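Putative membrane protein
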Amino acid sequence: MIHVLASYGISLTILAALFIISFCQYLETTKCTVK
């Protein structure tokens, strides 16, 4: 059970990191477009 929770947490962390990175890139592109 702990192994399942650990792998679930790891995948969630990876998804969160990818989401944050893509969100930052989206903000950068919008800033560039505004300029």
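thats it. The two ends are 51 Å apart (CA to CA). The chain has a mean pLDDT of 86. bye
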